[in-house]
Amino acid sequence: MEIKANSSGVTTSNLVPNSSCVVTFTPEGCFYGNSLVINYKPKRIVIDGKITACFFEDGEKIVVRCGEGDTFSEEVGVAEAIARKLYGNRTRFKKAIANAEHPAHPEKKKKKKLVK
Predict the structure, then answer these.
(1) DSSP readout, 80-108?
(2) Higher pLDDT, 57 or 2
(3) pTM of the model
(4) CA distance 10 to 4
(5) Please, are residues 51 and 66 in contact by the beta-carbon 8 Å criterion?
(6) Is position 16 within any domain?
């Protein structure tokens, strides 16, 4: 399998054995060859109070509600809806985050202050 990333998206080839198909993930959606398979960009966004609703090309509507005590953010609401579209539901999205790698970073050396 070959994976290429550039400014237009991420492309993987040979996902299917003995096939020359190319799958490309871009901000506009997932393409199989030249055909758009899934469009992750909402065609319409409605924000009503602390509720964000995103409508997608395939007819799916995803509604995100701000939790009690949380600070409402339009950007977070839309991002959450797109993540749910991408992962299928919130549980899968949360599992992906829980399984994220956290590489160890060496501690930065503190600069010594010069005494005059």
Answers:
(1) HHHHHHHHSSHHHHHHHHHT------PPP
(2) 57
(3) 0.60
(4) 6
(5) yes
(6) yes
Rounded Cα distance, 15 and 3, in Å: 10
- Give pLDDT tens digits for 58-104: 899 999 999 899 999 999 999 999 999 888 888 988 998 899 888 88
The count of structural domains within the chain is: 2
Q: According to DSSP H, which parts of 1-116 are helical? A: 74-87, 90-98
pLDDT of residue 65: 94
Looking at the domain assignment, is residue 113 inside a domain? no
CA 20 to chain centre: 26
Backbone angles phi, psi at 13, to 5 degrees: -125, 160
87 and 53 share one domain = yes
